[in-house]
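re: that complex we talked abt at group meeting.

here r the seqs, copy pasted straight from the sheet so there may be weird spacing, ignore it
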Amino acid sequence: MHKPHSPEGKGKGSFRGLVISTAFLGILSVNLGCSYGEDQVVANFTEITVQDEFDVDGAPDSSLWDYNIGTRGDGWGNNELQYYTDRPENIIVQNGYLIFTARQENFEGSGYTSARILTKDKFEQRYGRFEARIKAPYGQGIWPAFWMLGANSDEVIWPACGEIDIMEIRGQEPTVLFGSVHGPGYSAGEAITKRYDLENDRFDTGFHIFGIEWGPDYVNYYVDDVLYNRITPEDLPNPDNWVFNQPFYLILNVAVGGSFVGSPNEETVFPQTMLVDYVRAYKYNGPNE
Amino acid sequence: MKNGLFIYLKNTLLVVSMLALLTACEREVTDQVSFATFPINPEVFIDGFSGGLEYLPFDGSKLDAFSVDPDVKFAGTTSMRFDVPNFGDPSGSFAGAVFPDMGGRDLSGYDALTFWAKATEAATINEIGFGVDFGENKYRVNLPNLRLGTGWNKYTIPIPDPFLLTVEKGMFFYAAGPQDGDGFTFWIDELQFERLGTLGQPKPAIFNGEDRIETTFLDVQIPITGLTQTFNLGSGGNQTVSAAPAYFDFSSTDNEVARVSESGVITIVGTGTATITALLAGVKAAGSLTVEVGGSFQTAPLPPARNPEDVISVFSDAYANVPVEYYNGFFTPDRQTTLGGADINIGGDNVIRYTDLNFVAIKTLNTVNANAMTHYHLDIVVEDQQISDGDFIRVLLVDAGPDNVVGTGDDTEAFVEFDNQTLVSREWVSLDIPLTDFVGLNTGNLALYFFVSDATISNILLDNIYFYKE
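got the structure back, here u go
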């Protein structure tokens, strides 16, 4: 049984985190974008449980992040083409950003390399707010993601452990975001997904904030200052199969190819980079905890 | 009462003088500062001509190819209709026009020209874009060979750098010719500039992104070609357009060797090596040209004066030349790699240059009767740094025979080969080849004049190619 990672134990600017997050909440609850004419409260939880501002150059903080390496033999279940490594060529923290680099290179029998990091066994939390500020890669066959898996993913075969996709983008549609949940009876092609189309902008030319707020019977999805989806048990084929009541861990990766995006083509530029400014998690402060 | 009036007057005076002061301040400001305000209207043709728009067809085009169509349209009441003529149409051999707003518009707030289009059949529009104003065409953008289908599709022509288009007159232009001789019709609707916000990842290029190296000479002028800008569209694919030189900032690594003008013409001014590169809106363009300049161009030895009846000249500035059909047959299906032709003119001296040589042929318009001649002369420079053993230039002549047609049974051909015993790297060598050396060759109907190296030698210059009677 894993406890959420406590900020005191991490000793990494939790007070600063509180100040920043409160200010940020203030911004979020006021009308930010001129194009959205309504006041929306997209984020309610303000008590930071863990955060990584990527302020220390070098490999990602090993007290929070672990690596998935290789191909798992099946392209991680999606026929993805990359071999994930922990090399600085594929993942490094530099100048305040976590940098994922997908490369076209022959490596251990694969034609591409990239990276996938996760907080499994290091930070797992049930309910709360999970958010990252990201500048996405682009191009046919490029598949960045910010997502979560149930902590029992080793013991319980997917999709029964549950999966929450906070951000998925297809590189060949740089203005489109997908937020989803996968679970028993609603996985892969049957996942509960909502698509969000960014107006007059793209996800690869600047930073955007991707996040969820998750409670006992809902998951809210937001991007920047727009709440674009809310999934509840009633949205599932069978509401009893709502599996989002256990701790989940965070995952960040850039995949190349696979069933969701298809393979890169001659227009796809390599190397492709994804920049992450921060990852933040907040405690659930709602009812029925 | 008098007091009141006085106060009233005083207040009025105060107010009036305040007003005068304020007005005076405003007037002063507008005297010193003049704001050029050009209209920002993005619409070109929605349901009719936008204000200020004119229709100016190109010379030689079918003047009435364009009309406004109230029946076929994507949206609204009308669309632009273009009827491309058949080959041989007496009223014009192609359809093409410029649609300018001669008052000029400020397009700097937009990032693309967009429109919906369809055609009566799958069709190619040879040129379409904006920035042509029948004047300088300074910021011309062209999307070449646009393919249209029979259903309505939206097309996007990105502006390479909108910041520069503060006073643009060229709203839209197009040119389209018949396909396989047949004309067709296409329609354009909702033609306008837009601020999409979804164009990203600009990738400009010069020389189509290639890094080229060229040996050249003093005073030569080399235009920069292959100027393009590419954006990734919101729909995920790339869109490449040709962009006028004015969008680019050119630079040379050595201005004492090569200089580049704003119009993208490189002028060689000194010996040495220089590399030309470019930026577009601050982004480095792919591609470059490195010039290696040895010195002045050395002209070939001047041919001697001859009686006209003693010379049949194919290529020379010293004699009258017979008409030539082509200087390079581009026999691509036969795997010819050779590029170039009679492209060099340095101070009035015309020279043939072939690069990437494996074989190439010149064809005279009519066959040449050289029966009265005794020799075949040519001047040749091998530009390759080195002529190794086994490298050769094969001078090969093809005679079409009495039927005057190449490829029939009465043809004859023969060749003479030259190697490093005769040819010298980077120097003119004059060859006077007795026609009797071409064993088995008839010379009454000479048609093709080949130069073959099988890629042992890559780059040559040729001049003074002629037959003469000693």
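couple things i noticed - Chain A has one domain: 7-282. Residues 130 and 205 of chain A are 23 Å apart (CA to CA).
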